[in-house]
């Protein structure tokens, strides 16, 4: 499983790149919308996103610290840390109540467009999330079936025997790690869906003519949340794959070992490194978008794919 250094490096890179990229995004963006309601909604969304990100990073570092304090847990906190950290941040985002926006006019509007939790996410984004989650579960099933028990009966080693010679290597993501990892993968999927639902269920801006910036704000925020969720999944998949590849490579380092299995071990190890880098990129882009999230949404004709209805009455 990935060590504490990987978590610390990830945190440093995310913060550094986000701090450098966000100002450029802000300078390259369009003119800010004059409507104070749009600006307030964007600022509130940015605050929730950054709060969720900070919470996730704190839990991630805590997982690494707990693993160093309790070595008898054999790195299990590090294994489940990425998914638990990301899920905690996303659930915090979903639990934060929306800001109450007051309309200056007595004429209010509400969107009649039906919304589902995935209404503001692209098919490519949803497909990528599902693909990584399925890859993680499939890999864990494969490593679980090929794992062996250690001296204490925990399925966390891999064994290879040939010509009367037997060798073992660990840590290997067998059932000892695989079952908790599959559980937290489901937890992360549910947390991502809940965060999507939170974005979709937030009341629309109650002023006529703001349907377009309101929808764009939801799309941008959904993209950020998806980036955070994908980053957590990729980091977990990267750790699992790298650990499996490393253990397989060690156990197959003997005469007569099948060459194709050595290729599998090398492929898993490098896949793990690629997933770790992709995780850092995904989270960095999401954090950068969150920092730069502001009211640079041009008002214009309503184009939401739905309709709005005027609601007479006083402002909140």
Automatic annotation (TrEMBL):
<feature type="transmembrane region" description="Helical">
    <location>
        <begin position="125"/>
        <end position="145"/>
    </location>
</feature>
<protein>
    <submittedName>
        <fullName>Uncharacterized protein</fullName>
    </submittedName>
</protein>
<feature type="transmembrane region" description="Helical">
    <location>
        <begin position="49"/>
        <end position="67"/>
    </location>
</feature>
<keyword id="KW-0472">Membrane</keyword>
<feature type="transmembrane region" description="Helical">
    <location>
        <begin position="175"/>
        <end position="197"/>
    </location>
</feature>
<feature type="transmembrane region" description="Helical">
    <location>
        <begin position="264"/>
        <end position="287"/>
    </location>
</feature>
<feature type="transmembrane region" description="Helical">
    <location>
        <begin position="6"/>
        <end position="22"/>
    </location>
</feature>
<keyword id="KW-1133">Transmembrane helix</keyword>
<feature type="transmembrane region" description="Helical">
    <location>
        <begin position="73"/>
        <end position="95"/>
    </location>
</feature>
<feature type="transmembrane region" description="Helical">
    <location>
        <begin position="224"/>
        <end position="244"/>
    </location>
</feature>
<keyword id="KW-0812">Transmembrane</keyword>
